[in-house]
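Hi team,

Filling in the usual template for the complex we talked about on Friday. All components are listed, including any nucleic acid strands or ligand strings, so the model treats them as one assembly.

SUBMITTER: L.P.
PURPOSE: interface mapping
COMPONENTS: two
RESIDUES: 781
SEQUENCES:
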Amino acid sequence: MTWSLNEIEALSRKAARGAGLSWGLAEEAGKAARWLVAQGLPGPQVLADLLTRNDGKDYETLCPHDDDGGHWTARGGTLCPLISGAALCDHASRLAAGEALHLGRTASPMLLLPYLDAAARIAGREVTVSWAGVTLTCGTPDGMTTDMAPDLTADMVDAVSIHPGNRCDTDAIPPTTRGDIPETTARTLDAFAQRTYAPETEASRLAGAGAGLTDND
Amino acid sequence: MYQPDTQPIAPRHPDVVMRLDRLGSFHQSRVSFMRILLRRLQSDGWRFDRALFDIDARGVGRAVYTAHGPDRSYSLVAFANDLPPEKRSDRVIATEWDATFTLFDGVPDTADLDRLHANVPRQEAGRVSEKELSLSRANRSVRLWDHVVDSLASGQQPDAARVADVGYLMRTTAVYGSGKFGAADREQTADRPECQAPFQIEMLSVYLTRAFVMDLVEHMARMRAPDTAVPLDPDLRRRFGIGNSTGLGMAPFLVTHPALLNNWIATREEALARIRSLPRATADEADTLRRFAIRAHIHAGDWQSDHPVQIAKLDALRADMAALLAHLDTADLQTDQPWNRLWLWAEGALSLEGQELLASLLLEPYPRLVDPLACCMAADETATWRIDGAMRTDRLRALMQDIYGWALGIDWTSPAAQARVWYTSEAKLEPRLGERFDEPIEPYEQPLCPGRDAARLWADLAEAPDDTVAGFLMRHPQHRHIVRRAQIAARLPYAEIRDNTIDAAMMPIDMLRLKLSFFGACHFDPRSDRWLRINMYQHAPFPHELGDRSGDDWAYPFLATAAE
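RESULT (copied from the run log):
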């Protein structure tokens, strides 16, 4: 059984929201998981793992603080790639201007890639990202080349550096495909997603959808 | 080409158009998705066949209807069921239906049919694949179904008045598309010409469903009384549309697809502005408008509802149509920007129902001006989706005032202003609307109240130092979704409903009607403030009649002396 990319995005979005991210960040987390699956990468698995590890942690401890011109660190010690990724994308103009950005200890850095791909396209420049054992260029005309090194799915790295590169003006051509999610991953994401659903009550069943009349007419 | 000697009229302002009471008064038009579909099926000479119809005397079995286009074929796979009455529910929480369907991408083989037989009748509890493009189901209108089978079996035609009263034999209760329950994502088909306009797959599925339902009712009569049964008279047969019962699930879609909503509204507004700008009209064009207005008047007379709000709106609409016809009798419809003058008259003389019906009617005489705009109605949400973090917060403030001025003036501490909560229930993930101050549902609130969220953002922006949006959002992640919406609406003026979607007096059916009118639905019949029934494809030619009858001119009842 395969999943449609829309299903993967929706499940990931709801799971991110259920895990406590704001709606805007959760929307982007859904798109990120979808983008990774379309690249053949295990986005939902890494997302499920990240959400489990960060469950219950405050935004303030996970978000980047730019204390030292272009060096981002988290007060809690480890940056969340979903928050940092969104912020990197928001700061694409700094990459466009040629500025390099450096992240301190970061969880699940693979989740940064969809955001950096978008940032490269906004900035109009290729963006090279590297962490221990991995160097990748986002925004190239052929899309990203990934060889699934084990380090790609690392659950924690000490540093990530992001350097703007050559000019690029290619539109993203998203590979349309299907995805596969291991059952344990789907269960984990679904458990987070369930937190966004209101428990069923008879009153809400009748009033909430405004029905209750006969349909035998 | 002549040089216009008059000023072009600008499209209406979003503050005027995007109010729920006006959006909830929209009608189908030349750019409705059903009409776009049938025009294409006709102009491209699509062929149709019924490859399988294997249904027993109890009405149980399966059928396949295939539409063959220039490049590809699409097949409606139908499973008919013998449903006990106690299980017949139009709610999304139902588990069995009179008939279930999928639109298959191509022509299914027996293995496909067996796989689908194990899944499609279970709907949300089953699973389809990338070979399937939609998933849907329908229930009988029992009172009309029984009457039609009884009549045909005894060799009689059904009573035309009873047919008119209900208007359809089955109503669909959900039509799922893009990627739902394993089906193909829209991205898989979006670059095909026949799928370019929005919802063409869903509209094709419903169009073939109507053909199946009419075949089924005649088949049931034949099975019951092979010696006496007769088929429906072709003219009476076309008076059956296919019903649809729609609940709250449709409303969130409009909020979560801002670029798409913009493109629908912008297309219709552009068409209206072009026509209002015309310096003069020919006698033929004026006659066409008059003829369509008469047909629309008949249509308004045929439109039944038991809901007090809709009854009042229908009374107003019928009065509007009488006033319009009287005005058209004497008005100069040919010189001095005739349609703009007519429009300005209507703004003062007609209710919102009548004004918006006139907006649709004005498109009818101008297929060459209007129909090519249909290609602008699809949207790539991703093109405007990323936040522009380099924007300064003072620019964002200015945008907020421009787009959400209506919301910044609301007193959000008043309980009535945020009386409602949009949430998702555990049961089949059904979208619902609850009372914030009576039910423990606030923690589950969905972000479907842009006005309230804009006011919250506005308050924090007032306190914030001048900064980039990127810097502001780093400190205020809770505003991220509404900043995105504001930036989208800054580029796409009709992207946002400019009204309070959680107000105590808000009518969700206004949002449903907006969407359904773009589908091309008619006879909106609210059953409460949050679900309604409609009719689709009434009077339209059946697949085997396309070519002999117009695929475009069927959306209003025909005049007795004219097209029939």
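MY TAKE: Chain B has a mean pLDDT of 95. Chain B has three domains: 17-27+258-375, 46-247, 381-491.

Thanks, L.
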